[in-house]
Amino acid sequence: MLQRFPRLFSLTLTLIFFGLIWLYVREFPVFSNTIGVLKLLVGAGFAGLILAFVLLFGFRQRFSPVSQHLPEVMFILVVSMLFMPLFASLLNRHFGEKGFDSFVFVAEKPFVASGYGILKGEKVKTSGYRLTVQEHERYLMFKYKSQSFFPNTKPGESVLLPVSKGLFGIRVVTLK
Q1: Distance of CA 59 to CAs 1, 53, 56, 69, 175, Å?
Q2: DSSP assignment, residue 34?
Q3: Are 158 and 103 in contact (CB under 8 A)?
């Protein structure tokens, strides 16, 4: 296909690339509600690096001498490291067990997010809510947009949150 239809091949790859970027943007709210997101991101980055080295080793005949194929090698390294956290998050979340975990309620506050600020005369409306809870000795913050789930809850009370324990053991709070 590459030799017969190079423009179609390029268009297909471009559409796939923009589709991956669109998926990444949709996954950002999930990253903010992931407990242990740093472990997931760093582990996925290393997995992407290992995958890139395996690919480069497998196609070492194609990429030799390396000095003449430096842009391709760098592209494979960078793209695999950048997009592996997306795939790791999707795998972790979709193949996990859904359940509820108990947390100690600290606060739930509305927030306003506006791309260009609030215009004069514009009504301010809530963009979403930030929930702060405590688990053991650490404080966790989650964001969601739909509604206030705990308007009458007092600090120190125990609350149950929907949590998906992922494939890799990383938990994701699934408030929408």
Answers
A1: 19, 10, 5, 12, 44
A2: E
A3: yes
Torsion (CA) 75, 76, 81, 83 in degrees, nearest 10: 90
Which pLDDT does position 1 carry in this prediction?
61
E strand map for the chain: 34-35, 97-111, 128-135, 138-144, 158-165, 171-173
Q: Read off the pLDDT of residues 26-75 as tens digits, 9 standing for 90 and up.
A: 999 899 999 989 999 999 999 999 999 999 999 888 888 878 888 888 98
**90-102: b or e for each residue (b if 16 or more CB lie within 10 Å)?**
eebbeebeeeeee
Q: What is the pTM of this model?
A: 0.81
57 beta partners: none
Give the CA diameter of the chain. 67
Tokens linked to 68: 């003449």
Helices 37-58, 70-94: inter-axial angle, 10-degree rounding: 140
